Amino acid sequence: MSTAELVNHKPGRNYLLSAIAIVSSVVVFVIPFVFIVLTAVKDRQQSADLDFAWPHQFRIVQNFVEVLEARDYMLVIAFINSTILTVASVTGMVVLAAMAGFVLQRRKSRWNPFINFLVLSGLIIPPAVVPTIWVLQQLGLFRTMPGLILIEIAFGLSFCILLFRAFVATIPRELDEAAIIDGAGPLRLFFRVIFPLLRSVIITVVVVQSVNVFNDFVNPLYFLPGDQNATVQLTLYNFQSQFSTQYNLLFMNILLITIPPLIMFLFFNRRIVAGMTSGAIKG
Amino acid sequence: MTITSARPKSRTDSTPAAQAAGKRFYTPYSFWFYLPTALLYSVLFLIPTFASFYYSLTRWTLFDSTFIGLDNFVMFFQEPALVKGFTNTLVFAVVTSGSKVVLGLLLAVLLTSRIIGRGYLRSVVFFPVLVSSIGVGLTFQVLMNPERGLINGALGVIGIDGPGWLTDPSWALMSIALIDVWKGVGLATLIYIAGIVSIPREYMEAARVDGAGSWESFRRIVLPLCKPATVTVIILSLIGGLRSFELIWATTRGGPGFTSDVIASVIYKQYQAGFYGLSTAGNVILFLVVTAIVLPLNWFLNRREVDL
Amino acid sequence: MTFRPGTRGPAVLAVCSLALTACSAGSLGSSDDSGGGGSIEITYLIGNQEQDLKEAQQLSKDFTAKNPGITINLETRPSGSEGDNIVKTRLSTGDMTDVFAYNTGSLFQAIAPDKNLTSINDEPYIGDLDENFRKTVTSGDKVYGVPSGGFMGGAVLYSIPVYTKLGLQVPKTWAEFIANNAKIKAAGGGVAPVIQTYGETWTSQLFVLGDFHNVAAAEPDFADKYTKNQAKYASSPAALKGFEHTQQVHDLGYQNKDFASAKLPDGLKMLATGKGAHYPILSGVVNDMIATNPNAAKDVGLFALPGDDATKNGLTVWTPGGIYIPNTTTGDKLEAAKKFLGFVASPDGCKSLASAGVPTGPYAVKGCELPADVPQAIKDMQPYLDKEGGSSLALEFLSPVKGPSLEQITVEVGSGIRKAKDGAARYDEDVKKQAQQLGLAGW
Questions:
Q1: Regarding the domain with residue range C5-147+321-359, which homologous superfamily does it belong to in the CATH classification?
Q2: Distances (CA, A) of A221 to A9, A190, B1, C89
Q3: ipTM for the whole complex
Q4: Cβ B257–C92 below 8 Å, yes or no?
């Protein structure tokens, strides 16, 4: 059915198909989120019913305040921590991976297969937690925000390098040559000529990785323990036992930590597709 | 997107830039660019990984370690949960990546067609990708509650007695796979959309002029030209599926009993129990499994593409 | 071997009501020297359960009131095995807080106390610790911890209104228990005879773990042999009973309908509202139950898990968690930490704990008494403790061997996925890894 539309460009729209698509999208994708929102504003007793009923009373503000105040404003601290973590590690990933991906694509050497192999292993190998902690300890970085930032960068690099390498391949070499003839050194060539051209793939990397880092749960749990260091996913986890009978607060928490990705999404919705199209697939 | 693009497009090896630079060998593509990445990656990823190869051969209490050879691996394969976890891992990875390919392609075709509310539909399908696995897991745990959950409530209205999604041993793994597809299909769809919109319009026009039906053009044009996207979706979701852990942990923790355990959750349980050597051995096994499946598959898929 | 506070009970009471002042003086004594100077801050790591947190907050508040120079910052960690991991990791990397709470018994042995902890052998309050408790925080000949709460019973909580309505008697044998269940089921009214909550897997283990008094009564040397790899759950008829009971309750359809997905709060609610009759669980949950269902304080009673022999029926007891000082704590902080432990191990400490919530059972410090208004379920523990041979410590406090997968296995057995005998054999395999990891002889 739908292919007909795509392929034949028949004038007019398929209303029946549209209706089916919209209705099923509401059932499958929208209702779970509405459920989260409804449960988040219910009172404690009603939320325990776990049903899809309209709230008896709206406790948006009360629940919001209660969640924020829990454990001495742990959620607020967590939001600050997560923001710092996300911004710093994603910046690091973009710069480092763009540099590496650029050279990896441009300069063919006999090391390339080996480097490619390392990059690929980073995507495949599950990181070994305790030896990593041991290394961080040696460096004096265990339980510090910089330590966790470096960890996130290290674990996220592979994916970014692959994206950048693919995208760099679409930039004509003639540009490099022109810049070199103009007397640009390696650094200037990269940062003044190439880097700005990477914009669309950078946006993809930023969106994908900031969501990854923001939603990361396992790494903060091990590399940055302690309440004063909590990140948002950890609060959800910590509250799970504390709020075991207070589904309204648990869902308010889920709702709150879903807002930053939502904002990200609203801003970059179109760009994500653009980045994918130009960089990754056509490679 | 990753591996597809790895296909070698060997351009001229001695770059014109190098020639232009003249007298001595000069390249603007300095190896120094690798340095920060290499440093960080080696210290925080490679060294611990190599250390883990050693520790997988020890009985390790974190306080001290005794070398015991391959005992951990032997024990791991005697662990009945592993056999279950092993098949579960494969089933889970195949089911989720298969569904993501099929559903992703169908949705992408739908969402590139002239349909009302296309922007809304694209957004709504993609959004779950951005929500945390823990949040999604907790939400679905509630939605899938067998007695009071919304899903069985809705099924009850139309006269179906819904199963204990996450609590019935025969359903648990498939229910988690369902949640995983729900959360991840948006990414597959996005990749396919990117593939489809990059198909030159002329191809379609030409097909139409030749009198090809819609199914025909889908099969002859869309499907083959989406091959890179398919490879990307398969590889990404296989890696994700084989390593999948957070969602399983947030919903069933491998239960009831051991019925929804996968390798990653078995590893984590050994880790939790303090069997660090054993758990690290599991890490090594998982690494081997993923490599043994993904690398040949990647090679095979990309090979086919070149032949095409 | 056998836990008999009863033999000492009256003596302890007598001594302590007299010596109440002496006890507290002893612990206060350590606080007058050197304390004065500038303010010291120490950090105390605890599990994130609501009750743990409340008690810790109360303790630190009351402690600071007595020792104005010292403030205690709380830090939480996940509870359960994730928390175990964090404790181990932090100890091994020398990064533990100044004071931390952790389990006693086999889990305590697993954190290598001799290497990581500071012994409290020389502290004056050491003699005030209950002997059974002290054993569970001793490694080699050194004692390392003070109790962070009261004893707990692993037993059956039951709905008194259901019992009165149907005219039932508290069962002393498993056969009577099953007969009661049959009557409850026959009476209908939607009352589940046995509440099971596999949504929280740990709650599934009670038929096995709580049955240990009966095992010990039938095979007194089971724990020793078990440690030496000479006794097994699958091959010991008495020990196998726990698994068989788990299976039987499922096979006879006595569980609540939503047993597979229900969680602890659901189970407690069912019990408190009379929708369920029996709930095999730890007495530590009583506090939570009463917080949400105040009537449960008098509507819910407790009896020990029944075995085969009515004359030997008794309660399986869990010792409280411990509070420890890692050996990375030094100088002023060490002094402050020791003072804090001294405070916890004094009657003032118990009073502080009692004001933070309902006790889980009798305290493990001399001079500590339960408040008069404890809930019925906690009161019901006392007769068992007072009776000679009426109670035993749980196996995990007598043997370091405890497998990590018991909760999954009992869920399987209780859900009909696996047979009792098979489950027990599986658990024996599971335990082997633990014993080897600990480097025990004979494995």
A1: Periplasmic binding protein-like II (3.40.190.10)
A2: 52, 37, 30, 11
A3: 0.81
A4: no
Domain regions of chain C by residue span = 5-147+321-359, 152-317+381-438
Judged by a CB distance cut-off of 8 A, whether residue A133 touches chain C is: yes
Residue that the structure tokens 């001793």 belong to: C138
- B115 interface with A at CB cutoff 8 Å: yes
Q: Does residue A58 lie within any of the structural domains?
A: no
Chain A residues within an 8 Å CB radius of C268? none
Of A142, A227, A242, the CB nearest to C50: A242
Q: Which of A133, A237, A244 is opposite residue C265, by nearest beta carbon?
A: A244
Do B166 and B144 form a contact (C-beta atoms < 8 A)?
A: yes
B40 touches chain A (CB under 8 A): yes
> Does A45 map to a domain?
no
Mutate to test the interface with C, among B63, B138, B276 (most CBs of C within 10 A): B63
Residue of chain C minimizing CA distance to B165? C261
At a CB cut-off of 8 Å and minimum separation 6, what does A126 contact?
A: B243, B264, B267, B283, B286, B287
Domain annotation for chain B: domains and CATH numbers:
81-307 (1.10.3720.10)
What's the mean pLDDT in B281-295? Answer: 84
Q: How buried is C236 (Cβ within 10 angstroms: 0-12 exposed, 13-18 middle, 19+ buried)?
A: middle
The number of domains in chain A is: 1
How far apart are the CA of A72 and the nearest CA of chain B, in angstroms?
A: 22
Report CB contact under 8 Å: A258, B135: yes
pLDDT digits (tens, 9 = 90+) for C196-216: 999 888 899 999 999 999 999
CB pairs under 8 A between A and B: 314
- Residues in C touching B279 (Cβ below 8 Å): none
Contact A102, A171 (CB under 8 A): no
Nearest CA in chain B to C116: B63
Domain membership flag for residue A203: yes
**Phi, psi of C12, rounded to the nearest 5 degrees:** -60, -45
Q: Is A228 on the interface with C (CB under 8 A)?
A: yes
The CATH number fitting domain C152-317+381-438, selected from 3.40.710.10, 3.40.980.10, 3.30.360.10, 3.40.190.10 = 3.40.190.10
Domain presence at residue A7: no
CB contact under 8 A, B116 and A13: yes
Q: Which residues pair with C282 in a beta bridge?
A: C154
Torsion sign, CA atoms C373, C377, C383, C384: negative
Contact yes or no for B63 and C116 at CB 8 A: yes
Residue B1's pLDDT band (cuts 50, 70, 90): very low
Q: What is the pLDDT along chain C (443 residues), one digit of tens a residue?
A: 333 333 333 333 333 333 333 333 333 333 333 334 468 899 999 987 777 888 899 999 999 999 998 999 988 887 766 677 788 878 887 889 999 999 898 888 888 899 899 999 988 888 888 888 888 899 888 999 999 888 999 999 999 999 999 999 999 999 999 999 999 999 988 899 999 999 888 899 999 999 999 999 999 999 999 999 999 999 999 999 999 999 999 999 999 988 988 888 889 999 999 999 999 999 988 888 888 888 999 999 999 999 998 888 999 999 889 999 999 999 999 999 999 999 999 999 998 988 888 888 888 888 888 888 889 999 899 888 888 888 889 998 888 888 888 999 999 999 999 999 999 999 998 898 888 887 888 88
Which of chain B's residues have a Cβ under 8 Å away from the Cβ of A8?
208, 214
B147: nearest CB among C89, C258, C437:
C258
With residue A272 as reference, give the H or E element that holds it: helix A247-275
Domain extent, residue A92, equals 74-281
Residue matched to tokens 């959750």? B265
Quick one: how many helices (H) and strands (E) in chain C? 22, 13
Decide if A227 and C94 are in contact by the 8 Å CB cutoff.
no
For the stretch C282-318, pLDDT in tens is 998 888 888 888 899 999 999 999 999 888 899 999 9
Domain harbouring A251, CATH code: 1.10.3720.10
